[in-house]
């Protein structure tokens, strides 16, 4: 053993603390950069697939069905047309005082209820 050496291994000096630049902001910046990288990679991969497979196209098809024969509801609705017209005439005449048209509204509601259709008030 050389003289002056005690044979003991000495530990390296402690690391100095690095100054912090705001940990939360560093994380936010890293997240934003990751998002940009993902978005750019995604766009590039779409372009590569489009160049190999051809551009993506969407076709919209409209299916036209045969007209159904006249239903009994349509016939009964024409039976309620007279009540609907009477109610509309009353509303047009009395405008601001709709309470005077309650009778016509009740008649129209009763007709629609008996015909099985929904009252659209």
Automatic annotation (TrEMBL):
Segments forming domain CHCH: 80-114
Superkingdom of origin organism: Eukaryota
One GO biological process term: mitochondrion organization
Region named Disordered: 1-22
Stored InterPro entries: CHCH (IPR010625), CHCHD2/10-like (IPR055304)
GO cellular component: mitochondrion; nucleus
Keyword Disulfide bond: yes
The entry's keywords: Disulfide bond
Record protein name field: CHCH domain
Naturally occurring in which organism (per UniProt): Arabidopsis suecica (Swedish thale-cress)
